[in-house]
Specification:
Layout lengths: L1 H81 L2 H20 L2 H4 L3 H23 L2 E4 L11 E7 L8 E6 L1 E4 L2 E4 L1 E6 L14
Parallel strand pairs: 2-6
Antiparallel strand pairs: 1-4, 3-6, 4-5
Helix pairs in contact: 2-4
Length: about 210
């Protein structure tokens, strides 16, 4: 009976000894596994950060390219619109001369001469056709009479006292024109200085 007990205790000690011998190795393997898992996790997190950076950079570049494309398209459109600026200014000078020629002919003489009347009708037809061509190409006149003086649109050639409020345009010597929304030629105008102030001299009574 004692022999059996001793044998059982011996086996238990051997098993414990073997378990104790294996424990450090198991712990080491577990540590390696944890280290490997942490390393893999860190790699994945680093890749996520890099992917996010690349995505942000790509989106910024796409937005920049889109802005460049839009700016380039606008420059092309503007170039087409305003490429006729110099030509338009030259033709406007001709249109002004037509208008001066028409206005220089006294109206009372038109009824007396059929030739003169036909000449004026012809000049007015040419002038009208010129303005239609201007409009088809985006060149349009703008009204200034009664408007507030704007240095961006008007060129003041004279100032006069008038019943109109100071700064109001009271006379237009030459029409102003725009190409699309840009100024082509400012209007030449006379601007009101407001009503003339009357100074009354008072005589002191002695």
């Amino acid at each position: 009976m004692n022999n059996m007990k001793n044998e059982s205790q011996t086996k238990e000690k051997d098993l414990k000894k073997k378990t104790d011998q294996k424990s450090p190795k198991i712990l080491k393997d577990q540590e390696k596994k944890k280290a490997s898992e942490y390393k893999s996790f860190k790699v994945v997190e680093d890749l996520k950060i890099k992917l996010k950076e690349v995505e942000d950079k790509l989106l910024r570049e796409l937005a920049e390219n889109d802005n460049l494309r839009k700016r380039h398209e606008k420059e092309i459109i503007d170039c087409r619109k305003f490429s006729i600026k110099t030509f338009s200014l030259d033709i406007l000078a001709v249109a002004d001369n037509f208008q001066r020629a028409i206005h220089s002919i006294p109206k009372e003489n038109l009824d007396k001469s059929a030739v003169l009347k036909n000449l004026v009708v012809g000049l007015e037809s040419v002038e009208k056709e010129m303005h239609l061509i201007f409009e088809r190409n985006g060149v349009k006149s703008f009204d200034s009479m009664g408007e507030k003086f704007d240095p961006e649109l008007h060129q003041a050639v004279n100032y006069k006292n008038d019943d109109k409020t100071s700064g109001t345009i009271i006379e237009e010597m030459q029409k102003g024109y725009k190409i699309s929304d840009r100024l082509l030629r400012p209007a030449m105008v006379t601007v009101s200085k407001g009503p003339e102030k009357k100074i009354e001299n008072e005589v002191e009574k002695k």
